[in-house]
Amino acid sequence: MYSAAGTFLFLSTGDLSKVTAGVIEHGQAKNADAIVTGEIGTSDTSFVSIRVIYLEMAQYIDTNDEYFVLRSPVTVQDVMRGVAQRHSSISSMMQSMWVLVNGMPSKPSALLKDGDEVDLVPLVSGG
Question: Is the pLDDT of residue 8 over 50?
Answer without folding.
Answer: no
